[in-house]
Amino acid sequence: xxxxxxxxxxxxxxxxxxxxxxxxxxxxxxxxxxxxxxxxxxxxxxxxxxxxxxxxxxxxxxxxxxxxxxxxxxxxxxxxxxxxxxxxxxxxxxxxxxxxxxxxxxxxxxxxxxxxxxxxxxxxxxxxxxxxxxxxx
Length: 137
Known about the structure:
Elements: E1 35-40, H1 45-50, E2 64-70, E3 80-83, E4 87-91, E5 96-100, E6 111-115, E7 120-126
Antiparallel strand pairs: 1-2, 2-7, 3-4, 4-5, 6-7
């Protein structure tokens, strides 16, 4: 077994370390907030009535991931949110959430809004997919 690296003293390659592992801290005493992941797809009449585009209700045909995170007793100014291609990292003074996303996302085109009445942070992320017979755009 040979390590293909410029530095012979390294014990692993950077490809072997999962993305987001630098945020993982098992000793952090903050609690993990409740969250819900749902998927959203854009459908038109050609999908609903005629089935012309071949879309189905599975997550393979969804364009967006919507994550709703319950943050009781939290102000909007206390929230720190970092989104990478496969990881969502949320930190508040009381809560910490490191979430490995089910699909790669476009981290530059996400939206987040804080619903202060419900104390919920809603994050909408565009799924980054390769083009196939279902996902044309």
